[in-house]
Amino acid sequence: MPSPLPIALDRSARTPLSEQIRKAIAVAIDNGVLLPGARLPSWIDLAAQLGVARGTVRAAYEKLADAQHIVSSKTNGTTVAGRRKTAKPDTPVAPGSVVEMFQDLSGQGIFRMGVPAQDSLPAKLLARIRARAVRAELSAVTRYSDPRGELELRREIAAHLAIARGIECSPAQIVITSGFSGGLGLTLRVLGLEGRRAWMEDPGFPLTRKGLELARLDLVPVPVDDGGVDVAYGIAHAPDAALAVVTPGQQAPLGPPLSPERRARLLDWAAQAGGWIIEDDYLGELQLDGRAAPALASLDRQGRVIHLGSFSKTISPTLRLGFLVAPEPLAAQFADVATCLAPAPGPSVQLSTAEFMREGHYIRHLRRTKRAYCDSRDALTASLRAFTNDVRVAGLAVMLTLPDTTNDVEIARQVLAHGLAPAPLSPWYSAPERAQSGLLLGIATVPDRGVRTACKRLFDAIRSPAAQPPRRVRAPAGR
Q: Strand 305-310 and strand 276-280: pairing?
């Protein structure tokens, strides 16, 4: 039997054991530790060596085979595949590009932002519902789906928004989109504001900023404080702006909700100036302290707010499923543009989500998730306060403010090797001279055990000499 592989498993980590095994072998192959033709233990033998279930190792081997890292045969067993020529990428990925920004949203790791907790999702229930939806989709292959989205889902979203977010709308005002970015692109296409000025929260979500730039809007950074975006600043510096993009429920990334006074003033500005407001309701009702603040769209009486939501934080970002609520006068125009340029995703994901909501599973899932996130938040803040008192809860993240000389991007890069994936704060700012150094630690990916150890590793990196040179702003991880 081949000699044991040097694989160290962290059973307290959120990363599945099969993924830890796959990654360790892949790294050994890429680094030349395992050479082409080297024979690996059978998945049965390796399972015995590591003390894990056979299916765990088998799943890791199957992924390695799919990636062409290993090959299996009856005569030679499992061996490292021969050297392959590196395939050319589909498109070049330049540092700081929007593709690189999006890639930073993916991956696993403790403190990763922008993804929900895996263990809170009723995966088996969703799989059964999805299977039924796929059968329903295949039975309707002779018809085109409504490009606005399946009526069943639009009805469920309208009912949910009325209860959870205070928005009164009809299914005809709702358009199903490919996540938040699909809704943003559709909205910018309908509004047609190229060359006009737009308020953008500073700090604010970098992908939103990049999307507005690609739509050729002239961005006006508007600072954020404990009351949310400073509406008075926006009016004073760009009263002629045609658009304001805001996160009023909980500002991303700093966390405060938009104050009632500023909500009223923002709506007044839009009505008087003929401006539009895009409400990025990225957390929806996943606001942990008390009842979620009502959506800005629920207060809109002049039809100036386009409300964008998604299921990425509540169910899974892999669905690529979002929605928008159009003001009634614009509903037909949104429908036309969606039909021609941005039709809704496939029916099966929509129909399964509609059933998940209709049967009451979605609201129960949200309640369980909020309780779990509150426990994770409390455990994380308690562990962090053993190292610093400068801890602030910001939505589904905990923010650590660092001295201006600290290179938060370099810290985030360093700790990836330890399975930690905090997001640097500085890239959320519009310009380096305005940027505050800090780290955003996602609550949803806090492990049940080993939180104190993870925090210690993080602070070891913060105090290392490499963290002290002036930082270089680059693309961030997710919200």
A: parallel
Q: How far is CA 295 from CA 179, 356, 423, in A?
A: 18, 23, 27
> Within 10 A of 346 (CB to CB), how many other CB atoms are there?
15
Residue 256 identity: P
Asked if residues 65 and 29 have their Cβ atoms less than 8 Å apart, the reply is: no
366 to 5, 112, 135, 147, 177: CA distances (angstroms): 42, 20, 27, 28, 21
Nearest to 56 by CA among 79, 24, 29: 24
Show the tokens assigned to 292.
């979620």
pTM given for the model:
0.79
240: exposed, middle or buried (Cβ count in 10 Å: 0-12, 13-18, 19+): exposed
Return the pLDDT at 315.
92
Give the C-alpha separation, 140 to 163, whole Å.
Answer: 32
Q: Is the CA virtual torsion 349, 351, 354, 360 positive or negative?
A: negative
Tell me the three-class secondary structure of the chain, residue by residue.
Answer: CCCCCCCCCCCCCCCCHHHHHHHHHHHHHHCCCCCCCCEECCHHHHHHHHCCCHHHHHHHHHHHHHCCCEEEECCCEEEECCCCCCCCCCCCCCCCCHHHHHHCCCCCCECCCCCCCCCCCCHHHHHHHHHHHHHHHHCCCCCCCCCCCCHHHHHHHHHHHHHHCCCCCCHHHEEEECHHHHHHHHHHHHHCCCCCEEEEEECCCHHHHHHHHHCCCEEEEEEEECCEECHHHHHHHCCCCCEEEECCCCCCCCCCCCCHHHHHHHHHHHHHHCCEEEEECCCCCCCCCCCCCCCHHHHCCCCCEEEEEECCCCCCHHHCCEEEECCHHHHHHHHHHHHHHCCCCCHHHHHHHHHHHHCCHHHHHHHHHHHHHHHHHHHHHHHHCCCCCCEEEECCEEEEECCCCCCHHHHHHHHHHHCECCEECHHHCCCHHHCCCEEEEECCCCCCCCHHHHHHHHHHHHCCHHHCCCCCCCCCCCC
- pLDDT in the model for residue 206: 94
Average pLDDT, the chain: 89
- The stretches in the chain having pLDDT less than 50 are 1-3, 85-88, 475, 477
The amino acid sitting at 466 is: A
CA 60 remoteness from chain centre:
25
Q: What is the model's pLDDT at position 29?
A: 87
Cβ contacts of 434 within 8 Å, gap of 6 or more: 202, 221
> How far is 248 from 264, CA to CA, in rounded Å?
12
Q: Strand pairing partners for 392?
A: 399
